Amino acid sequence: MVNKLQFIYHEFLNIMSQSLDVIFRPKSVAIIGASTRKGTLGREVFDKLLKSDFNGPIYPVNPKALYIHSVKAYPRISAIPDKVELAVIIVRKELVLDIVKECAEFGVRGLVILTAGFKETGEKGAAAEREIVEIIKSYGIRMIGPNCMGVINTDPDIRLDATFAPTTSLPGNIGLVSQSGALGQTILEHAQELNLGVSMFASVGNKADVSGNDLLEYWHHDPSVQVILMYLESFGNPKKFIQLAREVSFKKPIIVVKSGRTSSGARAAMSHTGALAGMDVAFDALFKQGGVIRANTINEMFDIAMGMANLPLPKGNRVAIITNAGGPGIMAADACESNGLEVVELSEVSKSKLKRKLVPDASVNNPVDLLAGAQPDEFQFTLNEVLQDENVDSAIVIFVAPIITNPTEVAQKISQVAQQYDKPVLGCFMGVKGVATGIEELQRQKIPTYPFPESAARTLAAMVSYCKWQQKEPGKVSRFATNEKLAQSIIEQALKQKKEYLNDDEVSNILRAYNIPFVQSKLCKTLEQIFEAAKTIGFPVVLKVSSKDVIHKSEVNGVKLGLQTTDDLNKAYHEMSDSLRNHNISHDTIFYIVQEMLHDGREVIMGIQKVPDFGALIMFGLGGIYVEVLRDVTFRISPLTDIDADEMIKEIKGLPILQGVRGEKSVAFETIEQVLLNLSQLSLDLPEIVEMDINPFMSFPESEKSKAVDARIRIARQE
């Protein structure tokens, strides 16, 4: 039954994606708002469509013109004697709604609305946009925009350019989507400067109908698109995006620049998880789980795109560097190592051949330094030998132009060798003067070239990472036996009592209901109960405060460790009571917890944070009171696969601490992984849990000793 539903779902997505043919592969186009006046958008878009040599009829629509650019014009779309598949609308916003109605009644199947003044302007504009959406949905029309720059398809059988971009896009294998029209224009110009060809482009604007998700699905099944670039300002449906991205990225790389990186919506005072989580953290998790390559800037996006669009993927992370200048070679080596690449030792055979051919002072170690006087033939010979080396997966060639060497000839020799191997070769031609012709030659031959070594290293690292993503197992989401009913009853009772935070007994009971081991503990109110609890648990013990008014226990001197005797316990109790009184914590809200004392464990933190539209973020990292300072944590979106949980553990910088240093044994990673998976299931079963910390979870080499020591849960009724 599940497989049948999945098949139906995928068939539905295929049908929906094919419906975008009316926008990107229309048989006819009308420009509503085409103008006789040069310099207007209506004239520029019409001219652009004509110049692109669109393979079909074009109908300008203007009530005041008989001809535009020698093409017969029509007063309204309904006056056109033939069928129109796509209408591009460039009129005053007050006219758009009526024109959309007329297009719908006339049988137009696709719309591109360039006109602005809708949702982006406020509620009045949003209401008008909703009316447009109601119309197109009822007629089965697909729409790009409003408030967009248009669409492009460079397919020789289509040749559609319905934009007001001043540049003409080169044909290629990149699908490019920009939420910003103005930035979309800049992006197209930059692609042209880099000699990067575009298969299709869409400026989606307000995304009232067609979104980035729709384009992902469309390009997933389009063989003309091999690399997908996205500039996004917002996500309409992150959960759908991650599902699509996982499927698409196994076949085609997706490179995304997501603007608006500042954290929002996090309640920093409530928990460590909440303090560290935020929208940008959620996007990072989204991209990691979807196999998406995140670029920090437009420049970085294009740096990576040049590699992905033009080169074979590297089989591994072993890179060779060839240079005619020592300093840039060292810079490249540092950048490669910093990005997780291995500047590999060349084989003795390779070094021996290089020694025989190169000048005596040249260095045949990696980086190979040919020295400043190296000629084009030396670059050619060295690159050929290096790429033959079985220890090498890729190469970066750095050229700093001396007066005596022709950069174009160097570029030609590099290109000739690179085309003979199924290994990526990246160029780095440094300097403003003297290398321009060489750069142009490399671009012409589809060899990515960069002004600085760091960009080449970042690109190669992204390609290696993507190759690993394609090869990795998808992982599986499992369900485990729990006492879900008990946990739900605890939460429901707390909500009836209008609690925002569960007390420590409720927290520990929920964790145990989900098989998350929790240290032996007892909740007490009086000193006599504290003494009795310590006697039952056995010394040494820990004394902690438990109060709805205390967020972080350590901030009110609310944790006393290693209490060995009753006298120790008595002293700790009175010191803690005095501190709570000084912090104005009401006596009525104060309880105390007596716990067994765990020695010599390594502290980790795990948590849950609900983020609007994304669902639950699961956190893992090194724990303790300094977690917000060290920020050695990682996040994923629930549900977690077993692969997700394993990757989270391995991502943190403090992994060596958990693996053991100076003779220490490794902690029981299988226990940590299982707790993360249990938390993932808990976050789905109990959506009322909006924020949660387990900090610390004490990890030991022995699974049975590893336990949660402290935890906090915030709840809210879900609408």
Question: In terms of topology, how is this protein built?
Answer:
Blueprint: H1 2-18, H2 21-24, E1 29-32, H3 41-51, E2 58-61, E3 67-68, E4 71-72, E5 86-89, H4 93-106, E6 110-113, H5 123-139, E7 142-144, E8 150-153, E9 160-163, E10 171-178, H6 181-193, E11 198-203, H7 212-220, E12 227-232, H8 238-249, E13 254-258, H9 272-276, H10 279-290, E14 293-294, H11 298-310, E15 318-323, H12 326-338, E16 342-343, H13 348-357, E17 368-369, H14 376-388, E18 394-400, H15 407-418, E19 425-430, H16 436-444, E20 449-450, H17 453-471, H18 484-496, H19 504-513, E21 521-524, H20 527-537, E22 541-546, E23 559-563, H21 566-582, E24 591-596, E25 602-611, E26 615-622, H22 627-630, E27 633-637, H23 642-651, H24 655-659, H25 669-685, E28 689-699, E29 707-708, E30 711-715
Parallel strand pairs: 1-2, 1-5, 5-6, 6-7, 10-11, 10-12, 12-13, 13-14, 15-16, 15-17, 15-18, 18-19, 19-20
Antiparallel strand pairs: 3-4, 8-9, 8-11, 21-24, 22-23, 22-24, 25-26, 25-28, 26-27, 28-29, 28-30
Helix pairs in contact: 1-7, 4-5, 7-8, 8-10, 11-17, 12-17, 13-14, 14-15, 15-16, 18-19, 20-21, 23-25
